[in-house]
Design brief:
Layout: H1 10-23, H2 27-31, E1 58-59, E2 66-67, E3 75-78, H3 80-86, E4 103-106, E5 115-118, E6 134-138, E7 141-142, E8 156-163, E9 177-183, E10 191-199, E11 203-213, E12 218-229, E13 233-234, E14 243-244, E15 247-261, E16 264-277, E17 310-325, E18 329-346, E19 370-389, E20 395-415, E21 424-447, E22 452-471, E23 477-500, E24 503-514, E25 517-519, E26 530-532, E27 535-548, E28 553-572, E29 579-601, E30 604-618, E31 623-625, E32 651-653, E33 665-677, E34 680-691, E35 694-695, E36 705-706, E37 709-720, E38 725-732, E39 740-744, E40 750-753, E41 758-766
Parallel strand pairs: 6-9
Antiparallel strand pairs: 1-2, 3-8, 4-5, 6-7, 8-9, 10-11, 10-41, 11-12, 12-15, 13-14, 15-16, 16-17, 17-18, 18-19, 19-20, 20-21, 21-22, 22-23, 23-24, 24-27, 25-26, 27-28, 28-29, 29-30, 30-33, 31-32, 33-34, 34-37, 35-36, 37-38, 38-41, 39-40
Length: 767
């Protein structure tokens, strides 16, 4: 059964597409005579007779350095002032949510295990073995494990968000898109910076980098960050962890560049992270039944619990990027190694005492759940060899080989909160997975004329996974093994047409692939691993990129439509702390995206972004278990489900539902004001992000439909000494809007909250 209004009608969709593209054309450009396309964007200029211009944005979305306007896909970049503002309060990588059209980021683990969504596609799975359809690439190394994806963002040159399948050139498992980070690289001059800040809740953050030219051919850069906060939530009961939500998050990166001549360079990178803090707080009975409101009298600073809450994460990594420039070809070798050690324990039932206790609201806690998940062993090795042409001419090409190896072990432990000493329960499960993948890929770029440029890419991927899960306790079960071999051919074709030197039209069709997934959280009630077949995506997009008013403004608008066959989804159990992997026959999505940057005056700059995403699950036979109809709750239902009933008691059909955690509407806005004052410059920077409602799970329930959310930030400061010194005050979530953004649906109305308001000040020195 499809709900009315679950997808756009064809006339409406065409109207939105027309408005997005037509709105991006100024009338004078549409009527202007065609001129030859610019071969290279002009160099950035600070002051001209027309005032300041926007800098040329260079991206490496196609594994070459290119002007963003010339790349035939939807891309958003973040750098400079914007990154400084949105990370000012010690935010983790979730600060990216809503900062690009169609991008969402959230977590059920706190500062670790971020889950990325692009154009509605993501994965709500909380299992440590979960794969994601959004790839994350840091300094040319794919970060496959969720534990690697939350590395702190500091001393970063640029963040690129590539929307749509990226199967031919980047890593693996990226049918929805790629988020790409590039660190500031060593240079042959002495430079650096140090920035220190403090804030409410005892926050203390320090970040710095130092670049040192060791010789004429060797340079090094050391980048360090520490983020710290005191506890801000208290447990009023004598049991369990008493103070919560503090953290100490330390990370560092050392890079060494060896460049003896123009023909060869080697860049070595060693990095590490050490996080010690708390897991996400799962708060039972905080949602008012029949609504998505917090219960009356909710107190953010109070968390009655009888459980232990702690989390540690240590990651280590190194990579080596070698480059040889020959007469007609450039060769690359990129070797990467990553490892992670993770422990997270939380009182997942979100309460205390015997069954039926009422810690927060007028509801029950059906049962006691306190668990820990461990990643005692994780190792990832990647190797890429790539060759690319480097001679002028209409034909350019890239070709290469890619190898991926990952070994993981995951332990899941249950504890008895009601027993003296809170001992480990007999429920203990472990799973291991060995993954081997290799790929061959190639890409061709051909300039048909000065105006028309065509591109095409092809990739063959082979994946092999050996998986095993078992329960280790008084009564063992398993091991249960799953071996999977799969292969895929991905391709894309795109083109750019220059209407004039400032305006490019682009179109792209691309396929994507995600290898089969498996997991095994065995608990004695359901002793079987779950498995999902590979998913395959087909995407279409078209748009326009245009510089306006002598490069004082830049706009990018796109429309897209995609179809995913055998979409991998994660269904909850409804009654226990388990997930089940399933495949939907088909998922579709379509929408519109807009990016705008503008120099309004010499003192005022603005950015504006927005997106509309309409997603739909299409599988008439698919049903999942719903939340909370527990026999031991006195007949009360845990939540108010609005989907039609499924074929078995406690199940619902999800055909026609949107993808979970996928808001239809998103928007972001920034405004920067700067004016000379005395011997320096006063500046003010404000940023805002909006997202509409979304379903937290595959099914729809009144309590588990997130409210729309607007969050804003402000950073005000003064620079002097030719930009050497800077002092600033900041606020994040300045309206102090606190609401439920996630939930646990096997328990009664257990919610996860967004971050409250953060205030603080910073001092920065550049040298």
């Amino acid at each position: 059964m499809k709900r009315p209004g679950s997808r756009l009608s064809l006339p409406t969709c065409r109207t939105l597409m027309f408005m997005a593209v037509a709105g991006a054309f100024p009338l004078q450009s549409a009527l202007a005579q065609e001129t030859p396309a610019a071969q290279e964007a002009p160099a950035p200029q600070a002051d001209t007779k027309n005032g300041q211009r926007l800098d040329v944005v260079i991206v490496t979305a196609q594994r070459r350095a290119e002007n963003i306007k010339d790349v035939p896909m939807a891309i958003t970049t973040l750098s400079g002032d914007k990154l400084e503002a949105v990370t000012a309060g010690g935010q983790d990588i979730r600060f990216l949510a809503g900062r690009s059209p169609s991008l969402n980021v959230e977590s059920d683990y706190g500062r670790s295990f971020p889950r990325f969504y692009i154009r509605g596609q993501g994965n709500t799975d909380f299992d440590l073995n979960a794969s994601q359809p959004v790839g994350l690439v840091v300094d040319d190394i794919v970060q496959e494990s969720p534990m690697l994806k939350g590395f702190p963002v500091f001393d970063v040159e640029q963040v690129e968000v590539l929307r749509g399948p990226q199967g031919t050139l980047f890593g693996r498992n990226s049918p929805a898109g790629v988020v790409k980070f590039d660190s500031v690289k060593p240079v042959f001059r002495t430079e650096g910076y140090v920035v220190g800040g403090f804030g409410n809740y005892g926050a203390f953050n320090v970040e710095g980098a130092y670049n040192l030219p060791i010789s004429d051919t060797v340079a090094a850069r050391v980048s360090l960050q520490t983020q710290n906060r005191d506890n801000r939530v208290h447990n009023p009961r004598p049991t369990g962890t008493r103070d919560l939500e503090d953290y100490s998050d330390n990370a560092g990166r050392i890079q060494v560049l060896v460049q003896p001549n123009k023909q060869f360079s080697a860049l070595f990178n060693v990095h590490a992270r050490d996080l010690d803090g708390n897991a996400t707080l799962f708060r039972a009975n905080i949602i008012k039944q029949g609504t998505n409101n917090l219960v009356d009298g909710f107190d953010y600073g109070s968390y009655p619990t009888d459980g232990i809450n702690e989390q540690t994460l240590k990651t280590r990594g190194a990579n080596m990027r070698l480059r040889w420039n020959f007469d007609r070809v450039t060769l690359h070798s990129i070797t990467g190694y990553e490892s992670a050690d993770f422990y997270s324990r939380a009182d997942v039932d979100g309460g205390y005492g015997a069954v039926y206790a009422q810690p927060m609201g007028p509801g029950y806690i059906p049962f006691v759940v306190e668990t820990a998940d461990l990643l005692p062993n994780h190792k990832q090795l990647t190797q890429e060899f790539r060759a690319e042409s480097n001679v002028p001419g209409p034909l350019q090409w890239i070709g290469g080989l890619f190898y991926f190896k990952e070994d993981i072990r995951i332990d899941s432990i249950s504890f008895d909160s009601l027993a003296p000493g809170n001992p480990q329960n007999p429920f203990y499960a472990t799973q291991t997975q060995d993954t081997r993948s290799w790929a061959a890929f190639g890409s061709l770029n051909y300039s048909v004329s000065d105006k028309l440029k065509l591109r095409a890419g092809l990739r063959y991927t082979s994946d092999r996974k050996e998986f095993s899960a078992k329960r280790v306790e008084a009564t063992t079960a398993g091991p249960f093994g799953i071996n999977s071999d799969s292969n895929n051919v991905s391709w894309d074709a795109s083109g750019t047409y220059a209407l004039d030197k400032d305006t490019n039209l682009f179109a792209r069709i691309a396929t994507g692939y995600r290898a089969p997934s498996m997991q095994g959280r065995l608990n004695g009630l359901s002793d079987r691993p779950s498995f999902a077949d590979a998913e395959k995506a087909l995407s279409y997009e078209a748009g326009i990129k245009q510089d306006l008013f002598d490069r004082r403004a830049r706009v990018s608008a796109s429309v897209f439509q995609y179809r995913v066959k055998d979409k991998q989804l994660t269904a909850g159990s409804g009654v226990i702390n388990m997930n089940q992997l399933i495949n939907a026959d088909k998922v579709t999505g379509q929408g519109v995206e807009l990016d705008l940057q503008a120099v309004l005056t010499d003192s005022l700059r603005m950015t504006l972004g927005g997106s509309y995403n309409d997603t739909e699950i299409k599988d008439g036979s698919l049903f999942v278990q719903q939340c909370g109809n527990f026999a031991n709750t006195g007949g009360r239902a845990g939540c108010t489900v609005t989907d039609p009933a499924g074929p078995f008691p406690g199940t619902v059909r999800i055909d026609g539902n949107p993808m979970p955690r996928a808001p239809k509407w998103q928007a972001n806005f920034t405004l920067r004001y700067s004016v000379p004052v005395g011997n320096g410059d006063f500046f003010a920077y404000t940023d805002w992000a909006y997202r509409s409602t979304y379903n937290m799970f595959l099914y729809e329930a009144k309590e588990y439909k997130a409210k729309s959310l607007v969050e804003g930030g402000l950073r005000v400061g003064y620079k002097w000494g030719d930009g050497k010194y800077e002092v600033a005050a900041f606020a994040r979530n300045i309206t102090d809007r606190v609401q439920v953004v996630g939930a646990i649906d096997f328990d009664n109305l257990t919610g996860i909250l967004n971050e409250p308001r953060t205030l603080g000040a910073q001092f920065k020195v550049n040298f």
